[in-house]
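PROTOCOL LOG
Step 1. Enter all chains and additional molecules of the complex.
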Amino acid sequence: MNILIVGVGLIGGSFTLSLKKEKSLRFGGFDKNQAAMLKAEELGIIDEVFDSIDDAINWSDVIILAIPVKGIKMILPTILDQLNPNQLIVDFGSTKKSICDAVTGHRNRSQFIAAHPIAGTEHSGPEAALSGLFKGKNLILCDTEKSDAELLRSFEDLAVKAGFYLTKMSASEHDRHLAYISHLSHVTSYVLSQTVLDKEKNGEVILDLAGSGFESTVRLAKSSPSMWSTIFIENKEMVLKGIEAYKEELGKLENMIKSESESDIFDYLEEGRRIRKILK
Amino acid sequence: MNILIVGVGLIGGSFTLSLKKEKSLRFGGFDKNQAAMLKAEELGIIDEVFDSIDDAINWSDVIILAIPVKGIKMILPTILDQLNPNQLIVDFGSTKKSICDAVTGHRNRSQFIAAHPIAGTEHSGPEAALSGLFKGKNLILCDTEKSDAELLRSFEDLAVKAGFYLTKMSASEHDRHLAYISHLSHVTSYVLSQTVLDKEKNGEVILDLAGSGFESTVRLAKSSPSMWSTIFIENKEMVLKGIEAYKEELGKLENMIKSESESDIFDYLEEGRRIRKILK
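Step 2. Run joint prediction.
Step 3. Record the structure below.
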């Protein structure tokens, strides 16, 4: 089986590395960034490098789009147009609704699967790819009733072999949950980083005074700006709702601090601390 | 040398464990929480347990207050009253100005050192103490010109043996820097946790959808509510300034998302991402 990775970075690269033990699979790569693609080949992430997207598609049984959402929306309909009936295309984009909307009613819609791997690090590029990145991690499959049952089953097999467990939900549900659980974390990290950098011009001071707590809280601000600027816009409506809810909560705590109501603050923090029962 | 730890939790306990190799030192413990103190003795964190604070003080050469700021402010002046000229008292509180203010002009002020170890985990209690917690970490000493030079030097020796490197600044400077670099991270983590818990009533969904990013960003929301409710109030003025600055930054990003100005968002995230050059 020939698997084409479009976008051989952290996610695409980790997907092939996770499946390297499967001897029946061959991995091809296509990437606008020529250097990244050659690096991926050098690192053994892909077996074949393609210069033309058309050649790449002709060669493949399964096409994985592991690029930012905007790029996916741009090329997905065109690639779907030219598939033969046995080919499958899967996207690994971080938002799902606008992508699914872009191919609603497409005559080859059933050959497409919308997926989102809940895994990653703050690093990017093929050098950041890890063979164990998806072990025990969740792969969300969206609107699966619109995908061909057989193609879906064969892709599910592949995903499980890569280490994932699978969850299914609608694209809208996905985007709503992710806005709160993932996108909002990125917003707050970037904003915290910006606030501190603005007030503390001296990096030395930050380094000296930052406990591991600060480091952990701003870790996501190291993420890829091109990826996240797209996500914030693609999931604009839900992200803005998340920011609104966050601002309201921040205002509550702010008022408690203003009025020095220690027991209210204590209760508020105790409430927030329930998260430790959920995250191990 | 007899070292008394008042409050044998994460920080107090880690301090004695870091110095266990120094055979000339003996460690005593006093804690309102009898169970924690006995646990600390059982874990080998302290050699002697005291039931009376007066007995404990009479026994000691160096007294370390490793309790929340409010408690420190309450007992520090009284303990200073009863010290003989060779005894030293040090506090490890997380804010410094209100503590220093509480002993301004005290006749034994020179026998007090205001210190803040920039280290910790989200856990608390003697079970959480670690012998390596302070290795390569910063101990901030505040307003040191008000402490006796000889007592200061001998405490600095001890701190370096425990693994710390030392930084000196005024108590006000300390509180201003920490508001941005540490206290604000705690505010944003607790608020994020609260926002998500409020919108996602189903813990299972959070667990399934939370990548390591969310986990990292809300880690500090697992911290001790009693410690942090005190800190937020003790450093109220600076913490509120921090929240104000943060809200302003959040508003900027929110507006960029509203108007879908992708290149502005990109630039904003790229700016925030500079933090990666500072934190390794």
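Step 4. Note key features.
Chain B has 13 helices and eight strands.
Chain B touches chain A through 89 residues (CB under 8 Å).
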